[in-house]
Fold this sequence. Notes:
This protein is an all-alpha fold.
Amino acid sequence: MMGFMTGEETRTTVSPSIPIRSSAQDADLRTPPTRAWMTRLVIAGIVLTALNLRPAITSLGALLEEVRDGLGMSGSVAGLLTSVPPLCFAVFGVMAPRLARRFGPAAVVCAGMLAIGTGLVLRPFVGGTAGFLVASALALMGIAVSNVLMPVIVKRWFPDRVGTMTGLYSMALALGTAAAAAVTVPMTRALGGNWQSGLAVWAALAAVAVLPWIPLVRAKGTPLSAAPTEARVATGAGAPTGVAGAGADAVPKAPVSGAREEAAPLRITRSRTAWALAVFFGLQATAAYITMGWMAQIFRDAGVPAGTAGLLLAVTMVMGVPLAFVIPRLATRLPHQGPIVVALGLCGFAGYAGLYLAPAAGAWAWALLLGVANCAFPLALTMVGMRARTGAGVVQLSAFAQSTGYLISIPGPLLVGVLYQHSGGWGLPIALMAGLMVPQIVVGVLAGRDRTVEDEAAAR
């Protein structure tokens, strides 16, 4: 698949209105020999990075009861722990565009993978709840900046395959999420039943993800080593050319030799679509982090064995593997993404209803339905790439939507923990989860309208 995509992405599309007047100019338009291996490295980096963006969270969810007992946490403190990921994503995600302008996206993502690995190694062994939270924050900082920059890298390196590459990235993210949920408990048992070892082992995956970014950091003059606010004109797959239309298979416009597109100032907060997308991102993140942090515990409290509860969480996460590839491609072919938003929301309603009425009896069905509902995440990422017309717009929209969205999502997991502790059951928390699906559908339909943030910001 990697070879296929490389060949597909390295083609150069020339507009019929721009004649090729000499063999020298024709040679300029051909893909340089280094492009092929660099494109393969980018694809490998995207996949390995995506695999690392959720194990820090779902591995903890699978062992939350053991961590609570080991560190002496109450239900409210455990709720705070499950709120740390969106808090870190909101705080550190804002830094990503500035860091990328200074060091280049590849360098920032590479450093992010190092931060994830370091945090995951340290957090089980530093001792105490405070140290656990600080080390978790270090890992989550690396996840936060990588979260923001992945859509930017996809848009700049694969401008005419946004849907395909977003789907590949989302599939890898879902696979990493599900794998951590499924194998953390049995792997912990294989390591002697020590929860510290079961959590720390995921640092090895982050160490592997550092490797493909190192040569990309050292390769100067590529779209990934350059500041993302500059649209550099180049030939081949790495050219961050303008895209005619927002679809995944849109044909890139031919660049004008020697031209350079400067990023126009964009007041992103003037765009209603940007706000709708940010709120949609926040509400789907709320549902996702409640699911990752608490769903295994819901099943365990219903009498499901710990290993099976971890597998159920893995089923929920693994639904994103096939659907995360299908949904972005479908979304880029529709003029309005509202119908997809509604379909995912209805699956969420059905899953929460089943979780309330018969959590153990229909556990596998509810896990499947909630897994479909959680695919609002790759849809949100796809809409980030579709709702901005320029590379600079994608950077701003990605940072704004994700940072604002994660701020919105902070109270959700914490509130679930508080409601669970004070009500003595899961009825109220599940009712909260179901109720949040209503505004998620509304703002998702608004965010799915066919318009761009640049046009909206300029019109106001």
